Structures are given as structure tokens and as C-alpha cells.
Amino acid sequence: MRFDGEDNVDLEQHVAAAFIARRFGPRLSAQLTLGGILDGQLEGQGRRFDVNPGFLFSVSGAYRFVGEPGDAVFATATLGYGMSFASTEEEVPDAESVPLSASDLRLGVLLGTTLGETVSLFVAARGFAGPVGWELDGKKRTGSDRHHYAVGAGVVVNLQERLDLTVDASFLGERTLAAALALGF
Predict the structure, then answer these.
(1) What φ, ψ does residue 15 adopt, rounded to 5°?
(2) What pLDDT, in 10s, does the model give residues 40-73?
(3) CB of 156 within 8 A of CB of 118?
């Protein structure tokens, strides 16, 4: 993260979330995600801050513009908006708790292939922007990610007829690791 265009800090958060999604035909889907920030750390300028528990939510949509369900090759565009709210405390005695909030608009594309009927492999590129609000030493700060992009790969494994496991990792730009278990009904 970069605050006020000058101060670089590293932010690590651990979250747990649940989502509900709806398909609108074979190409379009929408998703609502609600979750909690469990903990984390914000570190920079020789100082460390604990990220306290908080919450997050997002809404997103996906449109498959190449391939039908079951086709060997697919391409999907994604668009989403999310927000998170937590607080931080510096790792010093009698530290004050100060708010940390973020909002994020993301646009992405996934290109992939389905092997058999049970495994789909994909590469993903996402661009995003949105401010992060934080307070340091009594001064309100505005920040954003240093990269504004994420490039990675993932796999979706159909475990049973209505049960999928997804693992998605970004290793260039924003670094993330996400795993999801989805039950269709």
C-alpha cells in the first residue's frame, strides 16, 4: 500500500467469507459475499500495527463470453465492487485503535480449459482501484495499492455433482491466496 503518495506499508489480512451466487442462464452470474476480517498486520516506516477483526462485503458479476458450460475452452469477464472495515492498533503500550477502511472496484478476465468434466484450469488478470482510509498519528491518510493489478492462476475441481472446490492464487501485483468450497442447490 502507498499512503498519501509517499509512505509504503505492507498490509496482510486473513479473512473468512461466505457467498451466495445465482446463475442467469449459461453465461451470466452474480454473487454477494459477506465475511469477516479475522486479523492481520500493517507494517511500514519501522512501525507495526495489528489489524483487528472487522467485516467485508462485495457484489460481483461474471459473463462467459467464450464457450458454453462443458466446453473445453472458456473466457470469462468479471466485475465487482467491495468494501471492508476494521481498525488497527500499533504494537506499543497504550496504543489507540484507529479505523481502517477500503473500497475496491475490480475488472478481470479468466481464460481457461476444462479437462474431462471435473477439472478446470485458468489464468486470471485483474485490474482494480479504490481508496484505503486510515489514521496515523492523528492525521487522516488516503492510500491505495501500489500495483493496481493482480495476475495469477487457479483450479476448479468438481468433487461431486453439486460440490466444487476452487483455489485461486495471484502472484504478480497484489498477492492473494483464496480457497472456496461451493455447494449448488
Answers:
(1) -130, 155
(2) 999 988 899 999 999 999 999 999 999 987 789 9
(3) no
